[in-house]
Amino acid sequence: MRGLIQRVAHASVTVEGECVGRIEQGLLLLLGVERDDTREQADKLLHKVLNYRLFADADDKMNLNVGEVAGGVLVVSQFTLAADTRKGLRPGFSSAAAPALAEQLYDYFVQQLQAQHAVVATGIFAANMQVSLTNDGPVTFLLEAR
């Protein structure tokens, strides 16, 4: 399971012209599910997302996590994160989870996140989404749970 997190001043996701998820300061998480992923890996990634220290403290050091700054988390499913890009000029998706498994793990991840964090917004799984954000920094990290 892969999560691309971006520290944002604000972010939103729109589907068919309607805003379906929005946060102010916090994290935009693009979530990619691979075929061998499990709930255990989802839990590990969730722990990393919630505890990763990428917000500035009083000394302007990245020492605070999203909860410590009362930030939101916007989760957007993104199967392209599971692509194999090592060879050629076209991504391969054989490592991506089948849609049914990916949706099940995405839903599980979001449910666990909602149980542990106050401000959570989401996109719509497998929808054609337009994501808008103001990356703060920019600060972007690829997190993996394997």
UniProtKB/TrEMBL annotation:
Family of the protein in this entry: Belongs to the DTD family.
Task of the protein: An aminoacyl-tRNA editing enzyme that deacylates mischarged D-aminoacyl-tRNAs. Also deacylates mischarged glycyl-tRNA(Ala), protecting cells against glycine mischarging by AlaRS. Acts via tRNA-based rather than protein-based catalysis; rejects L-amino acids rather than detecting D-amino acids in the active site. By recycling D-aminoacyl-tRNA to D-amino acids and free tRNA molecules, this enzyme counteracts the toxicity associated with the formation of D-aminoacyl-tRNA entities in vivo and helps enforce protein L-homochirality.
Organism: Gilvimarinus japonicus
Domain notes from UniProt: A Gly-cisPro motif from one monomer fits into the active site of the other monomer to allow specific chiral rejection of L-amino acids.
Pfam family, any one: Tyr_Deacylase
Superkingdom per UniProt: Bacteria
Primary location class: cytoplasm
Location in the cell: Cytoplasm
Name of the protein: D-aminoacyl-tRNA deacylase
Extent of motif Gly-cisPro motif, important for rejection of L-amino acids: 137-138
